[in-house]
Write the structure tokens for this entry.
Amino acid sequence: MLLVKGRRNLAISGHRMVSTQMVSITEPLAKLPIELLEQVFDAFGDIVFCVKDNDGIYQSVNHAFVERVGAKGKADLIGKHANDLFPKYLAQTFMVQDETVMATKHSLKDQLERITQPDGSMGWFLASKFPVVNEAGEVQGVIGVSQDLNWPRDSELELANLRKLVDYINDNLDQPLRTERLAGIIELSGDQLDRRMKRVFRLSTKKFIMKCRLEKATRQLESTDLQISKIALSCGFTDQSSFTRHFRSATSDTPASFRKKYRTEKS
């Protein structure tokens, strides 16, 4: 489990939380200062890192987090709350996620999220959250990690032999898309395809397909008057309810509300 001591120190009390399983670690890793974790994550420009206490107050952030919210430096963020940094709807989503992680003491892994960036553009991120628990079993806060899902260069797609597959997926989003069948298109096994997708896109095949479905649905919500139920089917969701659930998970909004807000902003 992860243990926070004081405001700026983090220790690991003999175990670390990975999903819902406890995994033993060696004694030399028993104590790590937050400053060291910051330095580690500062080395990765596309990975956002933060530590919040059980009141949702930021205790530690890395440089990528500073850039994500458009702040001048880390000092501007320490002691702040998500409500101080993000739109209300997004802050509320983060708070619900944190409360769930702390209440269950279970990690939230690989959550696909579409978030408005400081320049107004939309970006896709893969987020995970981990509970911070002391030696008495009391939850002290949450560690959050979020990775920017930048689209790979064309050369990377060609090198990984994925261009043909990506085109096929985008052309057939209204159809069931199974990993094993897709793998056969480029003469790979399902496991081989998953490894290659994660190397290039940082997503499993299944999550990449979901991202493509949500991107297509977002474009249709923005540029067409199609009924939401028809958008759901055209993007491969089983029904409107399934579409709404996945869309809300990624954007913290319903399709109808998103469309209304988009058109209000554009008018």
In short: The chain has twelve helices and ten strands. The chain has a mean pLDDT of 83. The CA atoms of residues 18 and 153 lie 32 Å apart. The first strand starts at residue 2 and ends at 5.
